[in-house]
């Protein structure tokens, strides 16, 4: 049964037809041929190419130089004969003085008398130079024939070729042996990297190559290898720490939730077991307990969700925020809940580009903590101070304060202070909001040096004074 062939895709108007990703055949992975064998073979191949070329070049230069030397020798002897003839040297003496090894000299006078060796017939193996003497009483007009047998040059060339072949073969053999031994030493750093990688894979941490030089190829590779191990082990430690903190956080959250849930369960079971003639005030107490514990559990769940959002990356809705108006709203709320408190606001009227809801949560948490610390009968101050690149908001009280050794611990999750009545998540959430804005929240000494606690909120922003 044949299937219909789908129509080709229609190109978009005025554009090119849609392209499909090209399919590349799956490769078998990284080729892991022995590096020693590869380098050795490559070096031998290079030598096999270079040595014959070098040998041919040497032989060609030798043959050319031998030919040039032979021609120079014959022409030099002919010029010497002309000089001796001008000195009126006797023919026999002239032949004897220009005679040399490998050269055959024949001098024929005008009378036909010959001196020296008898002439030979020129062949391919014979090199001949003829000259007519221009001076001398008996040698004027005489013919001088100089011949040399080139078979001697051919023999020397064959000997040179044989020497080059033997020396080339010996060079290849010696080079192969030297490469086999030398590559063991040259690739020892790679063996060290392999051993270290296997030890790391086996679970042994902390080993490093520690190269003595980092300006070479192996040095840079070893340094990069150590940096990779540092990053991997650092990431592993971070992951283990995060996992441990997450387990602890989940355990603490479950512990915190268990109290309100247990209260809800107890109140609900007691309420169900009440008889119709039970006192109404008892029923109201149980109902209030249900409401209180359900709110407590709901607040804890909401705080946990806020922390989850912070960890996942909080999305801020930034817009200009008037700090005085924001603080005034929170101070008015605080005056209603704690009318006996003395509350002050100091600082210029500034605006900042931030998320107003998150800033409100930060200020509300800090003010509520200050109210609990002063038990509703102290003094709370809000100080606003601009800086070149940030704005500082300090919330301080005249309560017992926070010991220096606990000032960072109180920002950990589910950590309760001595006077804390919450879930232990308010300050971590407030710091998370501050850092999401690019700022921070820390606990410091009061700027005026008096007893009490002070929390400084910094927001990186180009603050702008408001016009009256």
| CATH class division of the largest domain | Alpha Beta
Q: How many beta-strand segments?
A: 12
Overall radius of gyration = 52 Å
Give the helix/strand class.
Answer: alpha+beta
Q: How far apart are the first and last residues' alpha carbons, in Å?
A: 86 Å
In CATH terms, the superfamily of the largest domain is Histidine kinase-like ATPase, C-terminal domain
What would the average pLDDT be, to the nearest integer? 79
Helix content: 40-55%
Task: Supply the CATH architecture of the largest domain.
Answer: 2-Layer Sandwich
Based on Cα principal axes, name the global outline.
rod-shaped
Biased composition (Pro residues): 1-20
Catalytic activity: ATP + protein L-histidine = ADP + protein N-phospho-L-histidine
Enzyme class: transferase
InterPro entries: HAMP_dom (IPR003660), HATPase_C_sf (IPR036890), HATPase_dom (IPR003594), His_kinase_dom (IPR005467), HisK_dim/P_dom (IPR003661), HisK_dim/P_sf (IPR036097), Sig_transdc_His_kin-like_C (IPR004358), TCS_sensor_his_kinase (IPR050428)
Labels describing this entry:
Helix Hairpins, four-stranded antiparallel beta sheet, 9 helices, 3 domains, 468 residues, alpha+beta
Walk me through this protein's architecture.
The protein has 468 residues and is of the alpha+beta class. The protein has three domains: 36-171, 2-Layer Sandwich (Beta-Lactamase), CATH 3.30.450; 215-313, Helix Hairpins (Orthogonal Bundle), CATH 1.10.287; 317-465, Histidine kinase-like ATPase, C-terminal domain (Heat Shock Protein 90). Helices cover 52% and strands 14% of the residues. It has nine helices and twelve strands. The protein has helices spanning 35-86, 91-98, 151-186, 188-201, 217-273, 280-312, 323-337, 356-374, 426-436, and strands at residues 103-108, 114-116, 126-132, 143-149, 319-322, 342-346, 350-354, 379-386, 390-397, 440-444, 454-460, 464-465. The strands form three sheets. Strands 6-8-9-11-10 form a five-stranded mixed beta sheet, covered by helices on one side. Helix 1 (35-86) runs antiparallel to helix 2 (91-98). It is rod-shaped. The two termini are 86 Å apart. The model is unreliable at 1-6, 8-27 and 463-468 (pLDDT under 50). It is an enzyme of class 2 (transferase). Residues 1-28 are annotated as: Disordered. One of its GO terms (cellular component) is plasma membrane.
């Amino acid at each position: 049964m044949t299937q219909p062939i789908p129509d080709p895709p229609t190109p978009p108007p005025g554009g090119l037809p849609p392209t499909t990703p090209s399919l590349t055949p799956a490769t078998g992975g990284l080729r892991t041929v022995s590096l020693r064998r590869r380098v050795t073979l490559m070096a031998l191949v290079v030598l096999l190419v270079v040595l014959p070329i070098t040998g041919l070049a040497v032989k060609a230069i030798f043959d050319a130089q031998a030919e040039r030397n032979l021609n120079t020798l014959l022409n030099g002897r002919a010029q010497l004969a002309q000089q001796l003839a001008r000195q009126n040297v006797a023919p026999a003496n002239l032949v004897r003085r220009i005679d040399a090894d490998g050269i055959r000299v024949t001098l024929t006078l005008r009378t036909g008398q010959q001196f020296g060796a008898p002439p030979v017939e020129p062949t391919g193996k014979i090199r001949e130079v003829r000259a007519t003497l221009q001076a001398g009483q008996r040698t004027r007009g005489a013919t001088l024939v100089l011949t040399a047998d080139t078979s001697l040059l051919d023999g020397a060339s064959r000997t040179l070729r044989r020497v080059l072949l033997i020396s080339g073969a010996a060079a290849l053999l010696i080079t192969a042996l030297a490469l086999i031994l030398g590559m063991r030493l040259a690739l020892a750093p790679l063996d060290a990297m392999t051993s270290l990688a296997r030890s790391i894979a086996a679970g042994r941490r902390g080993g490093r190559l520690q190269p003595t030089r980092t300006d070479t190829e192996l040095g840079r590779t070893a340094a990069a290898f150590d940096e990779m191990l540092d990053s991997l082990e650092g990431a592993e430690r971070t992951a283990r720490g995060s996992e441990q903190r997450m387990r602890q956080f989940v355990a603490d959250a479950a512990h915190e939730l268990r109290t309100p849930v247990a209260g809800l369960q107890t109140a609900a079971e007691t309420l169900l077991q009440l008889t119709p003639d039970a006192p109404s005030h008892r029923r109201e107490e149980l109902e209030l307990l249900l409401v209180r514990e359900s709110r407590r559990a709901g607040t804890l769940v909401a705080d946990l969700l806020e922390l989850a959002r912070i960890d996942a990356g909080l999305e801020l809705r930034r817009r200009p925020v008037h700090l005085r108006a924001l603080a005034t709203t929170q101070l008015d709320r605080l005056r209603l809940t704690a009318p006996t408190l003395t509350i002050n606001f100091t600082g210029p009227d500034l605006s900042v580009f931030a998320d107003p809801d998150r800033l409100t949560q930060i200020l509300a948490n800090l003010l509520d903590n200050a109210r609990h610390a002063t038990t509703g009968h102290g003094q709370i101050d809000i100080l606003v101070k601009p800086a070149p690149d940030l704005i500082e908001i300090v919330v301080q009280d005249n309560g017992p304060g926070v010991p220096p050794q606990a000032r960072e611990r109180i920002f950990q999750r589910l950590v309760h202070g001595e006077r804390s009545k919450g879930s232990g998540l308010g300050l971590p959430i407030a710091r998370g909001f501050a850092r999401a804005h690019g700022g921070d929240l820390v606990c410091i000494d009061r700027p005026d040096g008096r007893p009490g606690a002070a929390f400084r909120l910094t927001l990186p922003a180009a603050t702008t004074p408001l016009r009256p």
